[in-house]
Specification:
Length: about 230
């Protein structure tokens, strides 16, 4: 379903092919547990699969509903095509696994506090060559989650970022960061596909090469843990 949410993106060939194939189908039903993630544009994508006339084109939707709290108008527009069912409404018919929260107290060491401070300072820098500008918010969020998980988890991610920068410096291109970090944070590639920003990197200028080399030097002291250590 997450592929269909991005049908408005030009590069999403699969979703566009499905949308065109169903263009003349009168009755359509889409079932999803979590239709929205990060952006109202995902809602636009799903609704356009059902009926492209509900919201019109993408520019019209952006002008009316993104960047402003026009939720009443959005609800009215959705009413004919969207039906929301809460978990409590279907519990008599669906056997859900009971959710029980387990809380474990944890006191970080001085070294872990220092690592957290260093990572926080690093992510606040205005210019980070290690993070594509279009996906900086997404990758920063992932790094914060890894930092909260364990020191080994964030160590692996930082080492991956250093390796990617080195490849970029050596050959002028590298694997998308979301793909590279997917080993450290399972499911990141799928999450990145749903994120609004794009990973856009142009050719490196000579001045940028020196900057990237300095960034690599900062990340290099981090030793990437083995799968067993994780």
């Amino acid at each position: 379903m997450h592929r269909l949410r991005n049908v408005y993106k030009k590069g999403n060939i699969i979703a566009r092919t499905l949308k065109n194939a169903m263009a003349h189908v009168q009755s359509k039903v889409l079932l999803t547990a979590t239709p929205l993630q990060n952006s109202l544009l995902k809602l636009y994508g799903l609704v356009s699969i059902i009926d492209g006339r509900v919201f019109g084109d993408l520019d019209s939707f952006r002008a009316q509903f993104t960047g402003r709290a026009n939720f009443d108008a959005l609800r009215k527009r959705l009413a004919p095509v969207c039906k929301r069912t809460l978990r409590q409404q279907v519990q008599p018919y669906v056997s859900y696994t009971a959710r029980r929260a387990i809380v474990q107290e944890f006191t970080p060491s001085d070294e872990e506090r220092e690592l957290s401070r260093l990572v926080a300072d690093y992510l606040r820098r205005p210019d980070l060559k290690a993070l594509p500008e279009g996906q900086r918010q997404l990758i920063s969020l992932v790094l914060w989650k890894l930092l909260a998980s364990s020191s080994r988890a964030i160590t692996g991610a930082l080492a991956t970022m250093a390796e990617r920068l080195q490849n970029l410096l050596n050959s002028g291109n590298s694997e998308a960061l979301a793909q590279s970090l997917d080993e450290d944070y399972e499911g990141l590639a799928d999450t990145a596909d749903e994120w609004e920003g794009d990973e856009d990197e142009s050719a490196l200028a000579s001045s940028e090469r020196a900057t990237i080399a300095a960034k690599i030097a900062e990340l290099r002291p981090v030793k990437k843990p083995s799968p067993i250590e994780r």
